[in-house]
Write a structure and sequence with these properties.
The protein has helices spanning 23-27, 42-45, 48-58, 75-87, 99-111, 119-122, 186-204, 211-233, 238-258, 262-274, 278-293, 298-307, 318-332, 360-363, 371-380; strands at 12-15, 34-39, 64-69, 92-97, 134-138, 150-155, 160-165, 173-176. The protein is of the alpha/beta class. Bound molecules: fe (ii) ion. Keywords: Oxidoreductase.
């Protein structure tokens, strides 16, 4: 655990049913002409986009809508958004959607005052100036992009998924309105919730964890473990949705400051290679990562296991107990737990681990991981 640390979050975080429909009030303090970034269907079909545009209009703000952001946003999509925002002279961004939309809106806001294209920054050039102020309005409870300083983007030609990272990317305002998640399908509820749970566990076991992130991560795990299965079963239940939204918010606060781990690193490798959605990739990869790390993280995994209500004796193999219980949990909310369930051919596993795909979350794993270890790990969940 870190002795010295810094803790960063958006300047303001609003939580509560109905908060999302007050977005105009908040944006009006720093923008007049926001680019509203949305995905392909959900925001429009659920009526949420209309409510958000209504709130902006009531405050005299002229919104420009950039719609159609796909899951796993590519560099081209971000560049298209930058072009649109520049031509329309937008001075701020509102990103309304799941993690992909938030990451795309965040990248557009961050890059626009710095250059024409996201590409040089994706390749590692630092952002020299602050981005446009932006507001995050998540419609899923899970990815945590509303709190973090990174945008996960995909270079489609190289099937390379990695983070654009800068302190300038943090949202000015994050608004977590649990009612925005009420019409999410059971599948999306489960996938985003499992992502949040994995993020909390990885934040807690991260070498960058500190006393603040620990407190947040533990409460996040407790809430998600208890309420996610119920929110998947009863999506209309406002109480379950609110508890899951709280768990997701706390998880995001924790991992935004402690970092995610090897499970996320691996998920970013297999996701673009085999078109496996992020939440499901994280859900199936965590058990082998726990097994790989269980000797060096004994106490931490015991804490996690106890926090989610597992019981064991004095000589318990806590890592193994947790790995099994987690796999049952993932299956219980209806997600797949094997790579072959996605039609991945076994022979294809060898090509997944490439040097350029090995990012920070793998390099910082508490037990050093070789490319060979990573391949063995993938074999285990095939
Ligand atoms: Fe994630």
């Amino acid at each position: 655990m870190e002795e010295s640390f810094v803790f960063r979050l958006p300047q303001e975080i609003y939580f509560g049913p109905g908060e999302g429909r007050r977005v105009g009030e908040h944006l009006g303090r720093f923008g007049k002409r926001p680019l509203v970034v949305v995905g392909q269907r959900f925001a429009r079909e659920s009526g949420i986009l209309e409510d958000v545009l209504g709130s902006l209009a009531r405050h005299g703000l002229e919104a420009v809508v950039f719609s159609g952001v796909p899951p796993e946003p590519t560099l081209e999509v971000v560049d298209e958004g930058i072009r649109m925002a520049r031509e329309a002279r937008c001075d701020s961004v509102v990103a309304l959607g799941g993690g992909s939309v938030l990451d795309c809106g965040k990248a557009i806001a961050g890059v626009l005052p710095n250059g024409e294209s996201v590409v040089p920054y994706f390749e590692g050039a630092p952002l020299a100036r602050p981005g446009l102020p932006w507001i995050a309005l998540p419609t899923t409870a899970g990815t945590g992009s509303e709190m973090t300083n990174n945008a996960v983007l995909t270079d489609a030609t190289r099937k390379l998924k990695k983070s654009l990272r800068s302190p300038f990317l943090v949202a000015r305002v994050a608004i977590i309105d649990p009612t925005f998640t009420h019409s999410l399908s059971p599948y999306h509820t489960a996938a985003s919730g499992v992502d949040a749970l994995v993020q909390a566990i990885e934040a807690y076991t991260s070498p960058r964890a500190n006393v603040v992130t620990d407190v947040l991560a533990l409460e996040a795990m407790r809430l998600l473990w208890e309420y996610l299965p119920q929110a998947v079963r009863e999506g209309e239940n406002a109480f379950f949705r609110k508890q899951v939204a709280k768990g997701s918010m706390l998880s995001a606060m924790a991992f935004a400051n402690a970092s995610s781990g090897a499970c996320h690193g691996l998920a970013h490798m297999v996701g673009p290679e085999f078109a496996i959605p992020h939440g499901e990739a994280c859900g199936l990869l965590l058990p082998p990562v726990i097994r790989f790390n269980k000797e060096v993280l004994k106490e931490r995994y015991r804490d996690v296991a106890l926090c989610v209500g597992l019981q064991g004796g004095e000589r318990e193999d806590w890592g193994e107990l947790l790995a099994r219980a987690f796999e049952d949990f993932v299956r219980g909310v209806g997600l797949r737990t094997r790579l072959r369930d996605f039609g991945v051919p076994r022979e294809a596993l060898g090509g997944v681990v490439r040097e350029e795909r090995i990012g920070r979350s793998i390099l910082e794993n508490p037990r050093p991981m070789t490319p060979e270890d990573l391949r063995t790990l993938l074999e285990e969940v095939w």
